[in-house]
Amino acid sequence: MAQTELPDVNTAREFYSKYEPKEILGRGVSSCVRRCIHKKTQREYAVKIIDLTDDNNRISEELRNVTHNEINILREVSGHAHIIELVDVFETSTFIFLIFELLKKGELFDYLTEVVKFGEKQTRSMMRSLLEAVLYLHSQNIIHRDLKPENILLDENLQIHLSDFGFSTKFDEGHYYSELYGTPGYMSPEMLKCTVDENHPGYSKEIDMWACGVIMYTLLAGAPPFWHRRQMIMLRRIMEGQYSFPSPDWDDISNSAKDLVSRFLTVDPKLRVTAEGALAHPFFQQVEDTYRYFVKPFHARRKFRVAVYTVIASLRMFLQMQKHRPLRFVIAAGDPYGVKCLRKIIDASAFRVYGHWVKKAADQNRATLFENSSRADQKRLLDLEEAAGSTVVNNGLMISPISSTGNSLFAQTVTS
Ligand SMILES: Nc1ncnc2c1ncn2[C@@H]1O[C@H](COP(=O)(O)OP(=O)(O)O)[C@@H](O)[C@H]1O
Ligand SMILES: [Mg+2]
């Protein structure tokens, strides 16, 4: 079993001199994974501590060899965007320490438990990344042999990183394997058949594609395709490829998604879709833009520039709106001089007519000239004028009426 106590300082001086181990992130059969801090840079990493001793305190050379194989494969696949990055390795007589990049969102399995199931859009994004990683492994003649949501880790942007190469192996084209590896629910029919039929030709890289089918089915439905509480029945179902798309879980899922799942879960490995074939499937050809949006790298300066332009544009729109507010008729008719644009026109017209501004005395307001109802005194003056048929001098101003109709007063004002 994986040890949860930390190895003592004397047995792992080199590791402790560089890293400070923190809380446990996960556990495997013979390993314990912890968060750790690189002392010099204060950066966070994950350390997989593999205890090579068994219950009787004997060192397992087999486990050491298996771990060396894992390290070699990890080093070979290093640099792929969707494969975990091995950063450093320390080895003592009883422990091996593998330092990995820290994947803060943990296992896809836990994330799936949290959200129950994914929509097609998110499944498409995750499956595309997984298939790109698997395609790369197969092109390097590597079979993973333990693909499952527990071994797919997520970073802060929910991008997947394939991990746990403990069961991985290099394969030669045309060479077939018969050993049982992996986790029952994800094992392929041909791998299981090897255990019941000693004349079975064996399995190769196609087992990873079967596991991809189980993963995709589980992501879309929130439940695995072959599960039964009695493991024997589940294994029989796998060997016979007995699964369905039950209602209501699958009612809203597209035919292209179902078609791709069934191409993964094809019992005959020769007819099963390859990683390359799956990536060319119509399921991945649709809504290409959505995918591009998902993987678009974050550019701080570009984002900031867009934000600045947005603020400037909204400010300009706001100011333009303020400047050219729609003018309501009641306002224009009731108080035209109170409206800035009309005031300008009125002033300009007045200037043209009189050759100067009409305001002469301190107690006189130009706005009164445009009032719709005449003041009592103005009315009186007009009445007087009408009666006399002449102009009247008032406060140094000569007012000669042009016409006076109802509420509207059209007055011509001239200087004396
Ligand atoms: N780099 C990492 N970042 C965060 N968690 C990790 C990391 N590596 C492993 N883990 C956690 O530790 C668990 C066991 O690691 P894994 O490599 O799968 O070991 P095992 O081979 O023993 O299954 C993972 O399922 C995951 O929960
Ligand atoms: Mg694991």
From TrEMBL:
Gene3D superfamilies associated with the record: Phosphorylase Kinase, domain 1 (3.30.200.20), Transferase(Phosphotransferase) domain 1 (1.10.510.10)
Residues at which ATP binds: K48
SMART domains: S_TKc
UniProt keyword list: ATP-binding, Calmodulin-binding, Carbohydrate metabolism, Glycogen metabolism, Kinase, Nucleotide-binding, Serine/threonine-protein kinase, Transferase
Domain Protein kinase: 19-284
Reactions mediated catalytically: 2 ATP + phosphorylase b = 2 ADP + phosphorylase a
SUPFAM superfamilies linked: Protein kinase-like (PK-like)
Protein name: phosphorylase kinase
Provenance organism: Clavelina lepadiformis (Light-bulb sea squirt)
